[in-house]
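Why predict the complex rather than its parts? Because the way molecules touch one another can change local conformation, and only a joint prediction can capture that. The input here totals 1498 residues.
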Amino acid sequence: MKRIFSKLLVLVMFLLGVQAVQAQFTASGTITDQSGEPLIGATVLVKGTVRGTTTDIDGSFSVRVDGNTATLVVSYTGYQDQEVQVTAASPNITVSMAESVEQLSEVVVVGYGETRKESLTGAVTTLRSDKLEAVPLASVEQTLQGNVAGLQSNMGNGQPGANVEIRIRGQGSISASSEPLYVIDGIPVISGSLTSQTETSNPLATLNPNDIENVTVLKDASATAIYGSRAANGVILITTKSGKAGKAKVRFTAQVGANDWAVSDKKRLRGLTAEEYTNLYIEGWVNNGETVQQAIDRFNNDFPDPFSGQPAVDITDNGNGTWNLGEIRVDSRWIDELTRTGINQDYNLSVSGGTDAIQYFASGGYFKQESPIIGSDLDRYSTRVNLTASPSDRFKISNNLTLSRTQQNGLNDGTRWAAPMYLGYLLAPTIPIIDPTGQYYADHKSFFMGGNNPVGAQSGDDTQEWTMIRIIDNLSASYELLEGLTFRTAWAFDLLNFQEFYFRNARYGDGRGSNGFGQETTDNQTNWIGTQTLSYNKTFSESHNFDFLLGYEAQKSQSRRVWTYGEQFPPNPNLRTLNNAAQSDPSSSSLTGYAFESIFGRVNYNYQYKYYFSASVRRDGSSRFGLDNRYGTFWSVGASWRLDQEPFLQGSEFFQELKLRSSYGVTGNAGIGNFDHLPQISFSGIDYNGQPGGAFLEIGNSALTWEQNNSFNIGVDFAVLDNNLSGTIEYFNRESENLLLNVPISRTTGFTSATRNFGSMRNSGIEFTLNAAIINAQDVSWSIGGNISFIKNEITKLDEPFLAGDYSRFRREEGRDYNEYYVYGWAGVNPDDGAPLFYTDATETTTSSDIGDIERYYIGKSGNPDFFGGVSTNFTFKGFSLDAQFTYTWNNWLYDGPAWVVQGDGRFSPRSQTSLVLDRWQNPGDETDVPKFFWGNRTNSNLQGSSRYLLDGTHIRLRNLTLAYNLPSSLMSKVNISSARVYVRGINLLTWTRDPDLYADPEAAINGYINSPVPNLKTISFGIDIGF
Amino acid sequence: MKKLQIILLVAIITGLSSCGEDLLNINPSSALPPDAAIQTVSDMETVMVGVYTQLQDADLYGRYFILTPDVMSDDVKQNASANRAKEWAEYGGFREHFIPSGIWTEGYEAILRANTIINSDIEVPATVQDFANQLTGEAYGIRALMHFDMVRIFAQHYGFTSDNSHPGIPIVTEFDQAAEPTRASVQAVYAQVISDFQQAISLMNENRGAGYMSIEAAKALLARVYLYQSNWAQAEAMATEVINSPNTSLTSGDSYVSTWMSNGFSPDAIFDVVNLVSDNVGSDALGRMYINEGYGDYLPSKDLTDIIYARGDTSDIRAQLFKEDPTLAGVYAPIRVNKFPQIDGSDNTPVVRLAEMYLIRAEARAMTGNESGAIEDLMTIRMRAWPDAPAVTASGQDLLDEIEEEKRIELMYEGHRLWELMRKKRDVVRGDCTAPADVCTITYPNDRFILPIPDAEMNANPNIAQNPDY
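Output of the joint prediction:
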């Protein structure tokens, strides 16, 4: 058809050419982008006429021109228009289009659609793939820290695949979830840790970050209210890559790196040496009233060297209250043995392309990361196919399918004996790691914490493994019924199979009493969602632009969990599955789920692209609430004014963009348990004497309803100096009402708390984002950008203050910051006798060593930072580029959870301590912060919830440093490579902390709690990125 | 046509929302609302199982209700590695500690579960009315037991004040989630306990075995309550009824030790909290606080073991309830408690045993002048374990001391010793003491013989009063 047409055209032109008075010729050519890739559908207009054409699949065009010379105007969305001269003499041209530096036409993904950036009335931040790709981290949320104003995220756990806590504009809830909603390609997906223990396994780690086109963070009600009851804590939209019509692009990336603790080995806590521990041991008993000889006898009994039969350390009693150490036969460095250099690997192959009718993106990836702790790693295999077909102009159908398998090996955390990063400090260095038979030593089990041997456990004697297999498929079809009116139907499935396997060996540790035990959990989560929308765009009277959306959505999520247990295993260490167990009970299964059903609508209006107004509403029904409160309505309104479009600024040399916007709306938080509203007699796991039983376990509350989040936002976006300086300033105020709270009640009721809608909280703050292009020359460019957020949290209504739990560091009280510490005030050590001193009360005027005299008080320090953010810079010179990104938090305080044991001043004999004990008080007059050490310490110096264990988390961290080189394309084209990039990248290379002695990683959980996790990683990796 | 399509679509989109009620009705797979959960007598039985389950809790008969008073007494000394109940063994406890918090919380949860049965108020067919009464009676019995246990551990003993007006614990007989009760006097709590046990006795009509509350168990516990009140006549009467019941018997001396060593019922069991292997108690077990394969935190004191060994090396078979542990050294050597020896934690926990009834009656008889009867009861228990025991000729206080000694040995590590000393207003004197010197003798009366009202309760309930010195 096309060929016939062009033949006809040639014929017509020939005829015309013969007869015409006026000269004519045909201009033709190719339109490409800067890298030489053809642009399909670019418009070519003959200037001064209405004649024009668009480029075909190869980027080529031809157009008839009157006269001998003409100017062609080439335009393409996202690129700067170009004018090119053509003459009859040289009618063939190649135009390389430069990408538009104007960000005004940027397309931004929003809830249930996309929009141009300039038409936004809400607070939205988008991160493009260049920030997300090739980061040697398992999951995409880990890259958000420091890149998005108002978003706080902490890598509190270096375990690859650990769950990542995210707070968008502050802590929005007390008892319900404060995590944002994650939406991948339009599907609200499963997130939050899945494990049955406290360790973490993050379902978002199943997603390959290299498959992601962009991540959009929706922050205010105008942007989020379309997600109704799940929007209160913000929404993170993840959009995966899709193909573009054109030649197939093949891309291969590879990255290999190595990692260590992010805390340098000079600062981090180390375990004691045998010499240090032995001296401490004797001193501890002597301080407890024993003679040196008694203490030596004790030591010899506790710590034999199994190889020689002699004591682990020879100690001689000098007879005058002092002692000397002789030969040291056992000197185990548990922490060192647990630490290694971890290796990261990441390989991806993708192909994308298509025709006008069908576009595709297909990829496969392999990622493996070992943490710096032995036995802790993650690997992921993932594939993706995203297809879009357009059988006609009006009809479009697409399917995004991803399949991945993620496997994690991990470790226990907290203060459990099996937690390696806890036990590694407590195990005496005088206990050998290996016994004379070559097995991991276990004979300390009779007296030392179950004989746990973390080196052996992490080297394969035990298993702790989580596997996730996940399929997400999203099928959608849209049909344009009338001009501007489109019906879209989308059906998505998120299927997640989670398997957890624990094995504890028979010789030592938790499995010692049961000849080994194994425990296996399978959780099958199925989540389906169907969304039907009708959208309509229409311009009236050339000035009134409308955009309507109406939708219905239903979603159901179900989790079926099976748990089995077995013990009494054969001694061969390879036999671990439960069919090897002599005794394999109990087992259990459970089924739970929730459903949402919603209608929603939105209208966007603008007048001459100057004045924008938007409104959205969603009515949600949720199975999580009782019949009385099943449905809730959420809404928002927003407006913006583009001052740069006004006559007084149009054409301004200074302002390229100036926009004022504001919004207000009400969203909800349904992030509570599936059945919290229901009083229940539960039958789960209740039995006696072999009979099944039931018990009144859930107090229920039929009046339970959504937490409500009233959110106000006002902001200004600007771009000045030829767009070289742009930024955003925003103020927000989030009022969370009807907070769902587990209100402590009298335990004489048989319950410890009841869930009630009780209390209010406010998060208000200011966010600044600034980006500057400092140099923008042919071969050199340098830009710098950054953001800073000041967020103030305040509990605005709470009838009665309450302690957050036994031994808690927090007490919630009206008028206070949610994370303000309420602790016993540590006043140091009495130099006269080494006794601990605490302030008796908030006045901090008197001190006491007796905890009967002291009370807790608000100490004026919070887990929340005064401000936080990130700074990034990019420098390019010819083919080289250097990227650096810093993240920082200011004046947030951490609490070291296990410190009361690992820095317990001898409270738990005969457990070793961290190296901090070396500063202990020993003689009258010693000025130190570490009290006198004695076994069985009864001074309460290690009182939990005291400010002694608060640490200053203020820090600036070089999160990312990348040096890259783009190999010259002239060179590469000879080997049929269209682009090649090599780089070296460092993660967390440098950290400055305000407290120069800070031994912990300054990035802990959002509430500041440190719980013997896998240390955060410092990584250096090398990568290549090749395009064909 | 197009318009029709559009109208249809809009109708579908908005209309779908009204047909989704089924979608949103999701119920838990393993729970029911209370009124739906108890509709038949079988439902009652199921929910009664939940009451017994609660007694297995580590804070109650699983571990701490038994262990805590024992580590505060003179029968136990701490191992060097002792940790969990250390503060109580050293009389340095505080109100945020997990043990008082656990016993209080779980004890009242047991009461809640019993009240759920007692107040369930369902109509049952006449053919099963007896069984419904039996279950209700069992629930009354457990409610009485829990109040009695908690008033012992959170309040000074009966007789501490002359009219027993000193604070006891809140009495809870029905569920009210808004309740913020005050502490009833010890007098009132004892009255409630006695009334509940009597109600239990009148309602129950069968003995379902020693794993359950029974008429005999209720009477036996009531005998103990009367003993604590120094109500000798009633104590003797109740003990006698239990001893004479066809449903109780003393385990023979031949099988006494082996019964302890196996994981079935305790010797003489009237009421045991049953722990099966499948309960997987594991490290939470009471026994594992003592044995080497467990935490091994607590050791027998020589104050107790010397009395047994003084009877001749192995003359008293109860010496076999200890075992040597070569890994113990110095002041900690050489023996461990082995009364609850199962490594997997499947030992039952005795709540009340028949031997105690003989010893209660012995004391009651001695206190009321029937010394020959008292000696007879004493010797029944002593000679079972020590067949060569010399005849007892003592009288007066000496006889009472003999009875006390026998009770101490027979009921050792079952959580009795501290209460015995309390009601007799005696000091705790630890001769074999690994605790700091200042807590080797704890003089009576002492604020520290009882646990604090837990901090969590203090914070949530403005009407509750704390114990002195906490």
